[in-house]
Predict the 3D structure of the following.
Amino acid sequence: MKTMTIGEMNTYAGRFIAITKIKDQDLKDRRLAHLMSDLECVYDIPLLASNVEDSGVDPIALSFYKMVSAERSF
């Protein structure tokens, strides 16, 4: 399991904050999707796992991922 360091969290949080300030919702959603893809790759977060909490994913990375996901519009 790859764990998220404080430095990595700061970097991703900075990206997230910058993205949330974007007014154009389509652009914001695309950027959030890219951030989610980056998190999936680095922290081995499965795309559609039903029980992702039990999959060995770093809980901090997973929590941040869920926060990013919740920010998207559908």
Summary: The two ends are 31 Å apart (CA to CA). The mean pLDDT is 91. The CA atoms of residues 19 and 27 lie 9 Å apart.
